[in-house]
Write a structure and sequence with these properties.
The complex is a heterotrimer of chains A (about 450), B (about 130) and C (about 525).
Chain A (H helix, E strand, L loop, with lengths): L7 H11 L4 H4 L21 H13 L22 H7 L2 H4 L11 H18 L3 E2 L6 H16 L3 E5 L4 H11 L5 E5 L8 H8 L5 E8 L9 H7 L9 E6 L17 E5 L15 E5 L12 E5 L5 E5 L6 H4 L12 H37 L6 E2 L8 E5 L4 H12 L5 E2 L10 E5 L6 H16 L5
Parallel strand pairs in A: 2-3, 2-4, 4-5, 5-6
Antiparallel strand pairs in A: 1-7, 6-7, 8-9, 10-11, 11-13, 12-13
Helix pairs in contact in A: 4-12, 6-12, 7-8, 12-14, 13-14
Chain B lengths: L7 E2 L4 E6 L2 E6 L1 H7 L2 E5 L6 E2 L4 E7 L3 E5 L4 E6 L2 H4 L3 H4 L8 E5 L3 H4 L4 H13 L3
Antiparallel strand pairs in B: 1-2, 2-3, 3-9, 4-6, 5-8, 6-7, 8-9
Chain C lengths: L2 H20 L35 H4 L17 H12 L22 H8 L1 H4 L11 H18 L3 E3 L5 H18 L6 E5 L5 H9 L2 E5 L9 H7 L4 E7 L11 H10 L3 E5 L19 E3 L20 E3 L11 E5 L2 E5 L16 H38 L14 E4 L10 H10 L6 E2 L8 E4 L7 H20 L1 H5 L12 H7 L19
Parallel strand pairs in C: 2-3, 2-4, 4-5, 5-6
Antiparallel strand pairs in C: 1-7, 6-7, 8-9, 10-12, 11-12
Helix pairs in contact in C: 1-13, 4-11, 6-11, 7-8, 11-13
The chains are: A alpha/beta (about 450), B alpha+beta (about 130), C alpha/beta (about 525).
C-alpha cells in the first residue's frame, strides 16, 4: 500500500528543482555509518484484502465479545455504545483534525470540548473541568500532584478500595516526588470514617485522601461521613480527591456536594468500547481556586472583533510548550476524540437516560447477586451498598470456575481477585451492566450451579 | 518607551521607587510591551518576606509567563488587589495604576546597586537592538 | 510533457489562481452554537431496553446521603438534532482531508481508512483485557508482532506499549533512567536538553524527578559540542535529544554526543517525534540511543482526533528492558501473555497495557506498507520538504540554508518592518484554505514558521501552498492591514484570547445564571 503524494517521475523532477543530483544528496547529512543497509526486516507489505484477512484471523483467535455475555468489570465495562457516536466521530473533520491551536479553523473541536467541560462540571458538581486526560488512573495521579503542589505535605492517603490498577499508576507517578502513599485499611471493603480519623491523627499532615466511588469492589464509600472528618479550612489542609465513575453519577450524588477538591475518573462507560484497555479518556474537574494548577488543556469562551462568540484554548501558559520546566504537567496530546464520544453519549441519553442506565446497572447487579447467592456455598463478600459490581465468595477457586464457565457455557463470569491478591483465590468480582439481560444473568447462575456441582480431584 | 527618572531598575525589567520607609515596585514599560496583553498577576500575601533577586510572583500573558524578581530584600506590606479584576492596568500604566507590591526594605543600600535610569536605558538599547 | 499532461498542468495552475483570488472575497459567519442551545425540555435521544428483572428502588438500597437529588444539567435533544449539531460543528474544523496541515513535527499525514475499519471491528474493539488469556491469543499476537516491528524500525531490543502519548513516552524514558541508575547505585541528578527542544522535554524531566539543564545549540542549530562538554558532569543522568532536531537537521555528532554521555554512565533518550525523516534510512539504535519514543499519531498515521488519542511506545536497549512497566506482551511455547511477573519493573504506567486501539491502527499501517513502503515514506517526506523549502525561501527565508530533512524552519522577521508578525501570516493562511504551520517554535529562530508537509501531499498541493505564502508575502508589503486583521474567511474572526483568559468562562450556563453577558452578540 502506498499513500505517497507524488509519482516516482514527479519525484525526479522535484529533485531537479531542489537542485540536487539525486536523493542520495538529501540524505548526505546522515553519516554513512548510520545508514541502513538494505531494507527494514519487517514482513512484506499486505494488500488491503490480505490485511483484512490477517485481522479477521486474529479476531477469530479471541473470544467473541459481540456474542459472549460479559460480567467483566474492574474498571472497564460492557456498556451500550449508541450507533450515532461512531457515525459522528468517524467524520474526518473530527478524527483527522489536530489540536486546536488555530481556533478560527477548529471551532468544531473547541465547541465540543466546551460542551464536554460543561457536562463534566454538571455530573461532578465542580466549577471547572479540563479538556480530558489520557485515562482515569493518570488523572488521579495528576490530582494528587496538584494537592502536593498546593500543600507540600508528603503523606498521601489512599482508601483501600481504590482499584489496584489506579494505585499502581499513582505510585509510578508519585515516585521520586517525595510523596509517600499510605493505603488505609478497609473494613468490609470500605473506608470507615474512624479509620480515616485515625490516619489523620498522626503528627505528619496528609496532602490528600484519594477515594474511589463506587470503589473497586463495587461498594459505595461513605463520602459524606469521610468528608466530614477532613478539615476543610486552613492553608495546608488535605485535599479530597474522588475518583468517580461518570455513569454512576446519573444516580449518585456529585462529589462536589461533599466538598471535593478534585474529581477525576475514566470516560470509558460513556460510549467508549473496551479496546483491550485503551484508549479511553480521563476527566479532571476541580474548584475555581485551583484553575491555574489544572493539568492538560482548557477551553474558554472568546469573542472576535465583531462580537461573534467562539471558543479557544486558554491558560496555555501553564502548559509545557510555554512554561517548559515549570509546567504544571507535561500533557500534550490527550483524548480529544474520546471526550467527543462521551459528549455525544451524554447528549444522546440526557440526564434522564443517564439515570436510566445507572438505575438498570443498580437493579441488574442486585438481581444477579441475589441469584448467585442462592447457590450453595456462594455468598456475598460484602454487606454495604453497591452499584453495578459486587464480589462473591465461592466454595472453590474462582480462576478454575471462571475458566470452566467460559469453556463450557461461553460466559465471561467475572474477574478472579486472585489476580490482584493471591490470598483471595475464592473471590470473584462480577459486573452487571444495563446490557445484561435476565436470560444472561439466569444463564450465569445456571452455569455456576453446574460448575460447582462438578467435583475436582484434590 | 517610558523610563521615568525618579525610579531605579533591575536587569529583569522591574522598577522600584522609594517612598519614605517603604518602596513600591512593578514591571517596566518595556516588560509590559514584551508580554503584551496581561491576563493575570500572581502576587504574594502581605507579610511575605522578600529576597533581592529572588522570584516573588509571576505575571501571565496569553502566550508567555514571567517570574517577578524582588528588587529589594524586605517584607511585603501591601499588594495591588485591583490587578485581580483588571490585570490590563499593568499594560496601560505600568508605573502608576499597574504597581504591584509595596514593601519595607531591609537594607536600603541595595537600592544603590540597582540600575539608574541611564543605565537601564542603555540596557534597553542593547536588547532592543538584538534579533529577538 | 504530452498534451494531456499540459492540459492537467494548466488546469492545476488555474485552480491555484482561483485559490488565491478566492481568498479576497469571503466573510465571517456567526457565533458558534452549543448543543445546550438546542435543548427542548422532554426530548431525549437514546432508548434503553426495558428492565426485564424485578424492579429495585434506589431509595431502598442506597443511602440517601449518597443519592443524587437534582439531575445534572444535560441537553434534552433528539438523535436527529444530535446528528445535525455535531455534523455542523465538524464543518467548522480544518482537517487532513480538507487540505495541507503543514505543522512542523506533527507529521499530519493521511490517516488510512482501512486501519480505522480494522481497529473498530467490534470483535477486536470489544475485547476486555481481564478475559482469560487463552481467549485473547489473536490480539496479543498482533501486539507482539507490532512490538517486534517497532523494535526493528528503530533498532532497539525491546518495546513498551504503555505510553499514551509522546510526552508520556518521555516520562517513561526518564523513569527507566532513574531505575537504571538506582540499580547501579549512581547518584544522578540532571538531564541535558538542547535549547531547541520541544517544551514537553523539560517538563517530562521535571515530573520524573530529575533536573533539566539546557545545552546551547551551535550556529548550525545543532548541539554545540563545547557547550555539551562543559555541561556534562558526574551528576549527568543522561541527555534528551531530538533527531532530526527541531530545525529539521540531522544531529551529525550524535555518536560523539552519545559517547560523552555514556562515558559518565549516562543514557541517551531520543524524542522520536521526527521519525518520519529516518524510517528505513537510519536506526536510532545504531547511533548510541538507549531509549526512543515513537509517536504513532505522527509517523504511523493514526488520526490526531482533535487532540488525541495518541500513543507513544518506547523502544529500549537491553539494559533497560528489566525495568519496563507491566504488563509486557511476551511470547513463549505456550503462547502470548500479558506478563506481570517482572521483579525489577518500575510498576504500572498505563492502567492496562497501552492504547491498544491506536496501536492496532499503527500495526495495520506497518503491515500494509512493508519494508519498501516504509522506506518510501521517508524518501517522499524528505523530497517534499526540500521541494517546498525551495519554493518558500524567497517569501520567508529559511533559517538554516542547507538541505533539510522532513521539515524546515522559516523566519517571518522581515514582516515586522510592515507592522506584521508571524502569527498574522499564519492567520492569513487560514483564509487561503490551509492550516498554518507551527508558529514561534523552535525558540532559537526568531518569528519562526516551522513547516512539515509529509509524504502524502501532492506536488500540486505543495505548489498551491507555496503560492499562498508568496501571495501573503506580497500582501504584507502592499496591504499589511489585510494580513494583520486576518482571518476574514473563517467562521469567526481572530478571537480575543487575552480577554478569554481574563474572563475565564470555561463552561456554559443557562441564560439568567452566572455571568451577565450570556447573550449572543454576533
Amino acid at each position: 500500500m502506498s499513500y505517497i503524494g507524488h509519482s516516482f517521475a514527479e519525484s525526479e523532477a522535484m529533485l531537479a528543482e531542489i537542485g540536487v543530483a539525486s536523493f542520495a544528496d538529501l540524505v548526505a547529512q546522515i553519516p554513512a555509518k548510520f545508514r541502513l543497509q538494505g531494507f527494514l526486516d519487517v514482513p512484506p507489505a499486505l494488500a488491503e484484502s490480505e490485511l483484512r484477512r490477517l485481522f479477521a484471523r486474529a479476531a477469530a483467535a479471541d473470544y467473541d465479545p459481540v456474542a459472549l455475555p460479559s460480567f467483566l468489570g474492574g474498571g472497564l465495562y460492557d456498556h451500550v455504545v449508541p450507533a450515532a457516536i461512531d457515525a459522528l466521530v468517524s467524520r474526518a473533520e473530527f478524527a483527522t483534525a489536530y489540536t486546536p491551536y488555530q481556533p478560527e479553523v477548529a471551532q468544531g473541536t473547541l465547541a465540543a470540548i466546551y460542551e464536554f467541560q460543561t457536562m463534566i462540571c454538571e455530573l461532578t458538581g465542580m466549577d471547572v473541568a479540563n479538556a480530558s486526560m489520557y485515562e482515569g488512573a493518570s488523572a488521579a495521579a495528576e490530582a494528587l500532584l496538584l494537592a502536593q503542589a498546593a500543600n507540600r505535605a508528603p503523606r498521601v492517603l489512599v482508601a483501600g478500595g481504590v482499584s489496584p490498577r489506579i494505585r499502581g499508576v499513582v505510585a509510578t507517578h508519585l515516585d521520586g516526588t517525595g510523596a509517600r502513599l499510605e493505603v488505609l485499611p478497609e473494613a468490609d471493603g470500605r473506608l470507615t470514617p474512624e479509620a480515616l480519623a485515625a490516619a489523620l491523627a498522626g503528627a505528619e499532615p496528609a496532602s490528600a485522601l484519594l477515594v474511589q466511588q463506587p470503589n473497586f469492589y463495587g461498594l459505595l464509600e461513605p463520602l459524606d461521613a469521610l468528608a466530614a472528618r477532613l478539615p476543610r479550612e486552613g492553608a495546608g489542609r488535605p485535599h479530597l480527591v474522588v475518583s468517580a465513575d461518570p455513569l454512576s453519577l446519573g444516580l449518585l450524588a456529585p462529589p462536589g456536594r461533599f466538598g471535593a477538591d478534585t474529581v477525576v475518573g475514566d470516560l470509558q462507560p460513556l460510549g467508549i468500547p473496551a479496546q483491550l484497555g485503551g484508549p479511553t479518556g480521563g476527566y479532571f474537574a476541580t474548584r475555581t481556586e485551583w484553575i491555574r494548577r489544572l493539568p492538560g488543556r482548557l477551553v474558554a469562551e472568546a469573542r472576535d472583533a465583531g462580537g461573534r462568540r467562539g471558543y479557544t484554548l486558554t491558560l496555555q501558559t501553564r502548559e509545557q510548550h510555554i512554561r517548559r520546566e515549570k509546567a504544571t504537567s507535561n500533557i500534550c496530546t490527550n483524548s480529544g476524540l474520546l471526550a467527543l464520544r462521551a459528549t455525544i453519549y451524554l447528549a444522546l441519553v440526557g440526564a434522564r437516560g443517564l439515570a436510566e442506565a445507572a438505575h438498570q446497572c443498580l437493579a441488574r447487579a442486585h438481581y444477579a447477586r441475589a441469584r448467585l447467592t442462592t447457590l450453595a456455598g456462594v455468598r456475598a463478600r460484602h454487606a454495604g451498598p453497591f452499584f453495578r459490581e459486587f464480589v462473591v465468595a465461592l466454595p472453590q477457586p474462582a480462576e478454575t470456575l471462571v475458566a470452566e464457565i467460559h469453556a463450557r457455557h461461553g460466559i465471561l463470569a467475572g474477574i478472579p481477585l486472585s489476580r490482584f491478591d493471591p490470598a483471595r483465590k475464592d473471590e470473584l468480582l462480577v459486573a452487571v451492566t444495563e446490557k445484561r439481560t435476565r436470560e444472561e444473568i439466569d444463564a450465569l447462575a445456571a452455569a455456576f450451579g453446574a460448575a460447582l456441582k462438578t467435583r475436582r480431584p484434590a | 518607551m517610558q523610563v521615568p527618572d525618579d525610579l531605579r531598575y533591575t536587569k529583569d525589567h522591574e522598577w522600584v521607587r522609594r517612598e519614605g520607609d517603604e518602596f513600591v515596585a512593578g514591571i517596566t514599560d518595556y516588560a509590559q510591551q514584551q508580554l503584551s496583553d496581561i491576563v493575570y498577576v500572581e502576587l504574594p500575601a502581605p507579610g511575605t518576606p522578600l529576597t533581592s533577586g529572588e522570584p516573588f510572583g509571576s505575571v501571565e500573558a496569553v502566550k508567555a509567563v514571567a517570574d517577578l524578581f524582588a528588587p529589594l530584600s524586605g517584607k511585603v506590606t501591601a499588594v495591588n488587589d485591583a490587578l485581580t479584576g483588571d490585570p490590563a492596568a499593568v499594560n496601560r500604566a505600568p508605573y502608576a495604576e499597574g504597581w504591584m507590591i509595596r514593601g519595607r526594605a531591609g537594607d536600603w543600600t541595595e537600592l544603590d546597586r540597582l540600575l539608574t535610569p541611564e543605565k537601564y536605558r542603555a540596557l534597553l538599547a542593547e536588547v532592543g537592538g538584538g534579533a529577538h | 510533457m504530452n498534451e494531456r499532461e499540459q492540459g492537467m498542468t494548466a488546469d492545476r495552475q488555474a485552480r491555484e489562481g482561483g485559490a488565491v483570488a478566492g481568498a479576497a472575497a469571503c466573510n465571517l459567519q456567526g457565533s458558534v452554537e452549543l448543543i445546550f442551545e438546542r435543548s427542548v425540555p422532554g426530548l431525549h435521544g437514546y432508548r434503553f431496553a426495558a428492565l426485564d428483572i424485578p424492579e429495585v428502588a434506589a431509595e431502598e438500597v442506597l443511602p440517601a446521603a449518597l443519592r443524587r437529588e437534582a439531575p445534572p444539567l444535560l441537553p434534552e435533544v433528539s438523535e436527529p438534532e444530535v446528528a445535525r449539531h455535531y455534523t455542523a460543528l465538524s464543518t467548522l474544523n480544518h482537517h487532513v482531508e480538507k487540505s495541507l496541515y503543514p505543522l512542523g513535527s506533527c507529521t499530519m499525514k493521511y490517516n488510512p481508512k482501512v486501519n480505522e475499519e480494522l481497529a473498530r471491528d467490534p470483535r477486536l474493539a470489544g475485547l476486555h483485557p481481564d478475559a482469560p488469556e487463552s481467549a485473547l491469543q489473536g490480539i496479543l499476537g498482533l501486539l507482539w508482532e507490532f512490538q517486534r516491528a517497532l523494535a526493528t524500525i528503530v533498532g532497539m531490543d525491546a518495546v513498551s506499549l504503555h505510553p499514551a502519548a509522546g510526552a508520556q513516552g518521555e516520562f517513561l524514558g526518564m523513569k527507566l533512567f532513574r531505575a537504571y541508575h538506582r540499580s547501579r547505585g549512581n547518584d544522578k541528578r540532571t538531564i541535558l536538553i538542547p535549547d531547541s527542544a520541544h517544551g514537553t522535554n523539560p517538563a517530562s524531566v521535571v515530573l520524573s524527578g530529575f533536573t533539566p539543564r539546557e545545552v546551547r545549540s551551535g550556529p548550525d542549530g545543532r548541539i554545540d559540542p563545547a557547550a555539551l562538554a562543559s555541561a556534562i558532569d558526574e551528576r549527568t543522568a543522561g541527555i534528551m535529544i531530538t533527531n532530526p532536531n527541531t530545525l529539521g537537521l540531522f544531529e551529525k555528532n550524535i555518536e560523539e554526543i552519545a559517547a560523552r554521555i555514556h562515558a559518565v554512565d549516562g543514557l541517551v533518550y531520543m524524542d522520536g517525534a521526527n521519525l518520519n525523516a529516518l524510517m528505513g534510512l537510519a536506526l536510532p539504535g545504531a547511533m548510541g540511543v538507549d531509549a526512543v519514543h515513537m509517536n504513532l499519531h505522527k509517523t504511523f498515521s493514526t488520526p490526531h482526533g482533535g487532540g488525541g488519542p495518541g500513543a507513544g511506545p518506547v523502544g529500549v536497549k537491553a539494559a533497560l528492558e528489566p525495568f519496563l512497566p507491566v504488563p509486557v506482551v511476551t511470547r513463549d511455547e505456550r503462547g502470548f501473555h500479558l506478563d506481570c511477573e517482572r521483579p525489577r519493573s518500575i510498576g504500572r504506567l498505563h492502567p492496562y497495557a497501552g492504547n491498544i486501539g491506536v496501536i492496532l491502527r499503527a500495526h495495520a499501517y506497518i503491515r500494509s506498507l512493508g519494508p519498501d513502503g516504509l522506506a518510501e515514506v521517508s524518501r517522499a517526506a524528505l523530497i517534499n520538504a526540500n521541494y517546498l523549502m525551495r519554493k518558500v525561501d524567497s517569501a520567508f527565508p529559511v533559517a538554516k540554508r542547507e538541505t533539510c530533512m522532513h521539515e524546515f524552519v522559516s523566519s517571518a522577521s522581515w514582516t515586522r518592518e510592515f507592522g506584521v508578525r508571524n502569527v498574522d501570516v499564519a492567520k492569513r493562511l487560514l483564509d487561503y484554505g490551509f492550516h498554518a504551520p507551527t508558529v514561534s517554535f523552535p525558540l532559537i529562530v526568531p518569528d519562526a514558521l516551522m513547516i512539515e508537509p509529509t509524504e502524502t501531499e501532492t506536488r500540486g498541493s505543495l505548489d498551491r501552498f507555496a503560492a499562498a505564502l508568496q501571495a501573503i508575502a506580497a500582501e504584507v508589503r502592499e496591504n499589511p492591514e489585510r494580513v494583520r486583521s486576518a482571518p476574514g474567511c473563517t467562521r469567526v474572526g481572530r478571537l480575543d484570547e487575552a480577554e478569554a483568559a481574563r474572563r475565564l468562562r470555561v463552561r456554559w450556563r443557562p441564560a439568567g445564571t452566572g455571568d451577565a453577558d450570556d447573550r449572543e452578540r454576533g
